[in-house]
Design a protein that fits this description.
By secondary structure, this protein is mostly helical. The protein is about 85% helix and about 0% strand.
Length: about 425
């Protein structure tokens, strides 16, 4: 039986535990992308990249972008039972929409459809843990989150290696990943949070609707940002097939770690920025935002310098000589990761200022531009068309939000919800 200590940990210890766990899990997910190519083929890698790109959108529906809202609800506006019950409902909605999408796409063969659905099942374990972790975060016990990350990293990576080596089947590997990570959620995370909160699941729509109405703008914004990156990859696979998609995904996997590294820079600023804004310290708010932005850009310049010097060697080491003709894609792919990271960066100050409608307008315009450029550039430029589409759309999105954030921070005297 798991015994939960009631005493909260310090902010520094919680931040350290969460960072170690998040980074470990991220590296393991990156290794999964690498091992699918090394133990299978670029076609398998393309099928996995397609599954990730498609399910990312439905994962946003499954989580409804409630993590920050839930973790910051220290006054108890909504109970743990309501948050967790809502997560079950939204997870089922996300899964249902994903299945319908896979069935409706007649250009996909049976293995592709199975991979999309099975990977979504795996992602649902993440969605459920995300809601449970928010309650652990509120209790200032993120050491439990670290253990969960480590256990799920081991089970997901280990099960994929076993399935790919023994049966050489990506659908079976994804099924095994979902099956082996589920017990971690049921036997580790759930008992801890049940003891902390005493939650009970009440799966009734009327229980979930008030919370969903409150979180709807955040979910829509997150879905639009995800679509900016996922749509071009979907169009690439549609036009050129899963092997080309696999090659692009192989080169693009390091960019995921870069983007996550940028998030580690600005995520700790959420609470200090919130205090500055609520207390009317606008000058300090702008200075902190500017310093964090400078740090993100400096980190990116270091990564670009390292990639220019060692990127080709690193890709060959990981994927072999077959990747060398495409190593030139690495630098533009890293630029797409910067544009995406800046989008998420400027979400922080605008969310704190309550400018959700401003963000929605920017994201909707960028999503429309992404569709237009994807259909125009990718059939002509192939993999580089994906890069240009993301750079232009995410870059313009980030620039518009950045200008809005600094302009509004300079003029606002209140904290409106616009």
């Amino acid at each position: 039986m798991i015994t939960v200590e009631e005493s909260a940990l310090s902010l520094k210890r919680n931040a350290l535990y969460n960072s170690i766990g998040s980074l470990t899990y991220l590296v393991c997910q990156w290794l999964i992308n690498v091992l699918v190519v090394r133990l299978g083929s670029y076609a398998d890698g393309g099928m996995l990249t397609l599954s990730i790109s498609v399910t990312n959108v439905f994962f946003v529906v499954a989580t409804f972008s409630l993590r920050v809202y839930q973790a910051s609800d220290v006054t108890g506006r909504f109970s743990a039972s309501r948050y967790l019950s809502t997560r079950v409902m939204t997870s089922l909605l996300g899964l249902g929409l994903c299945v319908l999408f896979a069935l409706a796409n007649v250009q996909y063969d049976a293995p592709q459809k199975w991979c999309i659905v099975l990977y979504m099942l795996f992602k649902l374990t993440e969605a459920w843990v995300d809601a449970l972790a928010a309650e652990q975060q509120k209790a200032m016990r993120m050491d439990y989150i670290l253990v969960s990350f480590l256990l799920r990293s081991i089970t997901s990576l280990g099960s994929l290696v076993v399935a790919m080596r023994l049966w050489h089947s990506l659908p079976l590997a994804l099924l095994l990943m979902a099956v082996t990570t589920l017990p971690v959620v049921l036997l580790y995370d759930m008992p801890i949070v049940r003891r902390m909160t005493g939650f009970r699941l009440r799966l009734r729509p009327e229980e979930c609707l008030p919370l969903l109405r409150a979180a709807w703008p955040m979910m829509l914004n997150a879905a639009m940002m995800t679509l900016l990156v996922s749509l071009p990859r979907y169009v690439l696979e549609f036009n050129f097939g899963q092997e080309v998609m696999g090659i692009y995904g192989a080169v693009a996997t390091p960019a995921v770690i870069v983007q996550a590294g940028c998030s580690f820079v600005y995520s700790p600023l959420v609470a200090p920025l919130s205090r500055c804004w609520s207390q009317g310290r606008r000058g300090e708010f702008r200075r902190m935002t500017a310093k964090a932005l400078a740090l993100v850009l400096a980190l990116f310049l270091l990564v670009m310098a390292g990639a220019a010097a060692l990127g080709q060697w690193g890709l060959q080491l990981i994927f072999g000589q077959s990747i060398l003709p495409y190593a030139w894609l690495l630098l533009p792919v890293l630029l797409t990761s910067l544009c995406s990271a800046l989008m998420y960066f400027f979400e922080v100050p605008l969310t704190i200022m309550g400018r959700l409608k401003t963000m929605t307008c920017v994201h909707l315009a960028a999503a429309a531009l992404s569709l237009l450029l994807s259909l125009t550039l990718i059939p002509r430029l192939g993999m580089n068309g994906v890069n240009w589409t993301i750079i232009l759309t995410a870059g313009l999105d980030a620039a518009a939000m950045g200008c809005a954030a600094f302009a509004l921070a300079g003029k606002e005297t209140l904290c409106p919800s616009k």
